[in-house]
UniProtKB/TrEMBL annotation:
The keyword Hydrolase does not apply. It is a multi-pass membrane protein. Residues 18-385 form the SLC26A/SulP transporter domain. This is SulP family inorganic anion transporter. One of its GO terms (cellular component) is membrane. Keywords: Membrane, Plasmid, Transmembrane, Transmembrane helix. The lineage of its organism: Bacteria, Bacillati, Actinomycetota, Actinomycetes, Kitasatosporales. It is found in: Membrane. It comes from the Bacteria. It holds the Pfam family Sulfate_transp.
Length: 496
């Protein structure tokens, strides 16, 4: 084979695709920049660590196979969990937790478990995001008022009205609240402006305008604290791994791994609907996410997930290949290396406003309404998951949601019908059809116990698709009791 034939056999880069990817990478960089910084500040870690996670999400995870167009980085959906972990274990232990979660993700990918995340109840995922959104909104409203937020999600919400009322009466907080409210207003109104104006991403415009207003008006509001990229990076030491001996740390690692994986793979499914290019390879995407989180952990940075806001911006900006997301990581690296001091002029209240807006997007208000009309049980699972996360915590709330989803499914699938045939003479016939499980035992036993006690009964189970152990035992016990009354045994045959 000639050299020309070999070259022809390989797919050469399309110059037009490279140009589109370059342009898309700039757009995604501008969208990601304020979100990376905002998520880091809200998580209680240096702002630079958010940029580190964005860089790793672009360069490391972005270069790997899986989903070609979705973009990874620090996500608002993990902010609450990261903040709680930092408060409990400290910033130094964050790297160990994220590293362990990344290794767990890679193990799940090696075991080809990525596809099974598509089996997670959508109501649980949306409930999880809604609960995160509620806690995130409440927590960032305290940040907008420059007031320390309570530790628990429930206290954040319950104490919010009094805190905001007190903040309005102080001397410094109104300025910060005005900056945050103005940031939210810009984000809400940005999509109503002409398309030419919208070429500048809304989050960047909102933070830029807020920063300019604070500078020009001389407002007394808190700014982002800057450490420098190398100073912020904090690789875990050997002693930090001792944290993994505690049950709380293990639960946090599981929560990081499972929630980040679920959010990333659900994001991949959503991004696949936005374009007609190659579909996501779920196990490979999970491997990429795990590799990214492993590197983030080694650097002591925030955990990463795929993020729908950046991914959608990438697709809408015309990206064709994964080069766009890799380049966006390069731009973040150059910014963090060359212009770190620029972060120090950004008001914290503006970043809080960006995250309040992001938190509102996590609450599926329209979906709850449609679910209530069409699938009421799913709506109950969604709302219960969200409330459990607010009241108890992230990991426990997700477990509550999963348990409710399983219970709902078990109840809905265990339909059983008991048909009684009484011809007036001879034995009474009872025909059971469907799925006989312990959940339907009250209905089955009520019907059987209402049959005449002085006549023989024939029990027919040929119509059952499933008969669990509890139900069979209960039927056998009923048969013994009935036989003692009529002195004629009742057979309990096996279902076909």
């Amino acid at each position: 084979m000639s050299a020309h034939d070999k070259t022809a056999g390989r797919r050469l880069p399309d110059p037009s695709s490279l140009a589109r990817d370059f342009g898309a990478s700039v757009v995604v960089f501008l969208v990601a920049l304020p979100l990376c910084v905002g998520v880091a500040v809200a998580s209680g870690v240096p702002a630079e660590l958010g940029l580190v996670t964005g860089i790793v999400g672009g360069i490391v995870a972005g270069a790997m196979r899986g989903s070609s167009l979705q973009v990874s980085g620090p996500a608002a959906g993990l902010t609450v969990l990261v903040f709680e972990a930092v408060q409990e274990f400290g910033v130094a232990a964050l790297g160990v937790l994220v590293l362990s979660a990344g290794l767990l993700q890679m193990l799940m990918a090696a075991l080809r478990l990525g596809r099974f995340f598509r089996a997670i109840s959508l109501a649980v995922v949306e409930g999880m995001l809604a609960g995160i959104g509620l806690v995130l909104i409440a927590g960032q409203l305290y940040a907008m008022a420059e007031v320390k937020a309570p530790s628990s999600g429930l206290d954040k919400i319950l104490q919010l009205p009094g805190t905001l009322a007190g903040a309005l009466g102080s001397t410094a907080s109104p300025a910060a609240l005005a900056v945050g409210a103005g940031t939210i207003a810009v984000l809400v109104l940005w999509k109503r402006l002409p398309k030419a104006v919208q070429t500048v991403p809304g989050p960047l415009a909102a933070v830029g305008l807020a920063t300019a207003a604070v500078y020009l008006l001389g407002l007394p509001v808190a700014k982002v604290e800057v450490q420098g990229l190398l100073d912020a990076v904090n690789p875990p030491g050997a002693g930090d791994f001792a944290q993994l001996a505690g049950i709380g740390a293990v639960g946090t690692v599981l929560a990081f791994a499972l929630i980040a994986s679920a959010e990333s793979l659900f994001c991949a499914a959503a991004v696949d609907r936005l374009h007609d290019g190659p579909r996501t390879e779920y196990d490979k995407e999970l491997m990429a996410q795990g590799a990214g989180n492993t590197v983030c952990g080694l650097l002591g940075a925030l955990p990463m997930t795929a993020v729908i806001v950046r991914s959608a911006a990438n697709v809408q900006a015309g990206a064709r290949t994964k080069a766009s997301r890799v380049l966006h990581g390069v731009w973040l690296l150059l910014f963090a290396a060359l212009l770190p001091a620029a972060l120090g002029v950004i008001p914290v209240a503006a970043l809080a406003g960006v995250l309040v807006h992001a938190g509102c997007k996590l609450i599926p208000v329209r979906e709850i309404g449609s679910l209530w009309r069409e699938h009421r049980g799913e709506a109950v699972v969604l709302v219960a998951t969200a409330l459990a996360i607010v009241a108890v915590g992230m990991f426990e709330g997700v477990l509550v949601g999963l348990a409710l989803a399983v219970a709902k499914t078990a109840w809905e699938t265990s339909h059983v019908r008991v048909e009684v045939v009484d011809k007036g003479a001879g034995p009474v016939q009872a025909h059971l059809t469907g799925n006989a499980t312990f959940l339907r035992l009250p209905k089955i036993l009520d019907t059987l116990e209402s049959l005449p006690h002085d006549r023989p009964v024939e029990l027919h189970l040929g119509g059952l698709r499933h008969l669990d152990h509890a139900c069979r035992t209960a039927l056998e016990n009923w048969a013994e009791r009935h036989a003692s009354e009529v002195t004629e045994p009742v057979g309990v045959p096996s279902p076909v």
